[in-house]
């Protein structure tokens, strides 16, 4: 039986051994040595890009453009006038930059506003708790919710104390493990608290470090569970209330939130291109998101990613280069609410998915770059490792796993190769979604390096003889 199966396989794929890279429909028909030689041939172009970005007349440009942008428009939460003014501005300046096919593609995005909010500790002493309502939270009645606090350290702890939870305000004082793991308390904290009859939930901010700053972000209600108001509080206040309650001290808090959700708003994904010389219909997508939370300036999340993506097209244009495939800049809208703008873009364009060569998103900071994260086949990964060798002049050549990003995941699910920028994340979550996300945390030299990496990778992929194999 086994032998028969093997013979059948050999008959079905008679050529599969001759050309290890040719068995995929879209795969290149050349040997890996040929591909390596082709990529090594880009070393002069890569050096020119790096020089222009880091030492030449383009140095600090992405930083300076971003500084003007965030100082002018401020934070750009989904559904806000700030965001729409920022999008109209980008539409104008991308045209002025001489990019091609600059246009806006409509998307409907959530519109939530926090309005006035406060949390006053009434017992054991009067104290104003630093607070940021979570995205999408309902408000409280105008007089607020006054209730005793129940502090828990985990969902398990909450379930064990379920009998005591009814009518209380749950304070989550969970341990920070990693953003990816701990963020579930922000996302599901209200639902789990409501299930045991709590009136509201306050979540210790998802950050490893704090100077008394609350950090907002999206949270999700569940249709079969009552909605309760929910907000983030500082690490310091969560820990203080935890100490108080472990001493047996009764804590009473009055929570007031004016938060309100409005009908979905009209918005746009912003698009600009350098049209490919040979295969204009084929696309390498470079992206970041223009929306942010409604605090700070959204300079780090994700102004930096959006502006190094713009910079990639600017640098290529400045050098008079035109890759074989189209390099398409996408500045997403409604990312913070769960990739809402990107989802609509995907639905509108997925019929052309066979033309998508690679999707790239920078949305995890533009601090000191450490490499490129990649999602794709082993064959494609080997090619990415060769491309990253071109970044030897700046000593950032690593290729990591997990090239995902909220806005590009739709394409990844369909098997399109994807990459995201990797950088030093040490401080990222200190500022993330807080008043601290301002231009002050950005660094022009680090942004130059990120832009150089982003540009070399996107240009070479767009210009190679063949698409990256799936
Ligand atoms: Zn982001």
UniProtKB/TrEMBL annotation:
Gene3D superfamilies found in the cross-reference section: 3.50.30.30, Zn peptidases
Subcellular location: Endoplasmic reticulum; Golgi apparatus; Lysosome; Secreted
GO MF terms, alphabetically ordered: carboxypeptidase activity; metal ion binding; metallodipeptidase activity; protein homodimerization activity
Keywords annotated in UniProt: Carboxypeptidase, Endoplasmic reticulum, Glycoprotein, Golgi apparatus, Hydrolase, Lysosome, Metal-binding, Metalloprotease, Protease, Secreted, Signal, Zinc, Zymogen
Protease as UniProt keyword: yes
One BP term from GO: peptide catabolic process
Peptidase M28 domain residues: 269-448
Secreted keyword on record: yes
Cleavable signal peptide: 1-18
Gene Ontology cellular component terms for the protein in this record: endoplasmic reticulum; extracellular space; Golgi apparatus; lysosome
Pfam families listed in its UniProt record: Peptidase_M28 (PF04389)
The family this protein is said to belong to: Belongs to the peptidase M28 family.
Subunit structure: Homodimer. The monomeric form is inactive while the homodimer is active.
Function noted in UniProt: Carboxypeptidase that may play an important role in the hydrolysis of circulating peptides. Catalyzes the hydrolysis of dipeptides with unsubstituted terminals into amino acids. May play a role in the liberation of thyroxine hormone from its thyroglobulin (Tg) precursor.
Name of the protein: Carboxypeptidase Q
Source organism of this protein record: Podarcis muralis
């Amino acid at each position: 039986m086994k032998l028969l199966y093997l013979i059948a396989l050999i008959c079905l794929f008679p050529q599969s051994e001759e050309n290890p890279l040719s068995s995929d429909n879209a795969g290149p028909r050349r040997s890996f040595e040929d591909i390596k030689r082709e990529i090594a041939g880009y070393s002069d172009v890569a050096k020119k890009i790096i020089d222009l970005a880091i030492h030449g007349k383009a140095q600090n440009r992405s930083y300076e453009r971003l500084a003007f942008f965030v100082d002018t428009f401020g934070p750009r939460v989904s559904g806000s006038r700030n965001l729409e003014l920022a999008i109209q501005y980008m539409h104008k300046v991308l045209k002025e930059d001489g990019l091609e096919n600059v246009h806006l593609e409509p998307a409907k995005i959530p519109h939530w506003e926090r309005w006035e909010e406060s949390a006053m500790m009434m017992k054991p002493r009067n104290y104003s708790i630093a607070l940021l309502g979570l995205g999408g939270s309902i408000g409280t009645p105008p007089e607020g919710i006054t209730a005793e606090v129940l502090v828990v350290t985990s969902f398990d702890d909450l379930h064990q104390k379920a009998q005591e939870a009814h009518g209380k305000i749950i304070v989550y004082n969970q341990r920070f493990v990693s953003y990816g793991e701990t963020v579930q308390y922000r996302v599901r904290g209200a639902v789990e608290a409501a299930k045991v009859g709590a009136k509201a939930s306050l979540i210790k901010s998802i950050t490893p470090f704090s100077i008394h700053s609350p950090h907002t972000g999206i949270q999700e209600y569940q249709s079969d569970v009552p909605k309760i108001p929910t907000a983030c509080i500082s690490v310091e206040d969560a820990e203080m209330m935890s100490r108080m309650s472990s001493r047996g001290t009764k804590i009473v808090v009055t929570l007031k939130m004016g938060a309100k959700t409005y009908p979905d708003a009209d918005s746009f994904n912003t698009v600009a291109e350098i049209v490919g010389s040979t295969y204009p219909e084929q696309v390498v997508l470079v992206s970041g998101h223009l929306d942010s939370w409604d605090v700070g300036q959204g300079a780090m999340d994700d102004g930096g990613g959006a502006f190094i993506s713009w910079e990639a097209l600017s640098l290529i244009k400045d050098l008079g280069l035109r890759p074989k495939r189209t390099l398409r800049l996408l500045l997403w809208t409604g990312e913070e609410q769960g990739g809402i703008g990107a989802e609509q873009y995907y639905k509108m364009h997925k019929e052309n998915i066979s033309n998508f060569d690679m999707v790239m998103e920078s949305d995890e900071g533009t601090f000191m770059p450490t490499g490129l994260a990649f999602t794709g086949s082993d064959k494609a990964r080997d090619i990415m490792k060769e491309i990253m060798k071109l970044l030897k002049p700046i000593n950032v050549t690593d290729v990591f796993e997990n090239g995902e990003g909220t806005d590009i995941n739709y394409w990844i699910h369909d098997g399109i190769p994807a990459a995201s920028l990797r950088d030093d994340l040490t401080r990222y979550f200190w500022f993330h979604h807080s008043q601290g996300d301002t231009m002050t945390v950005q660094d022009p030299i680090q942004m130059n390096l990120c832009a150089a990496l982003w540009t070399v990778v996107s240009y070479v992929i767009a210009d190679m003889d063949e698409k990256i194999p799936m």
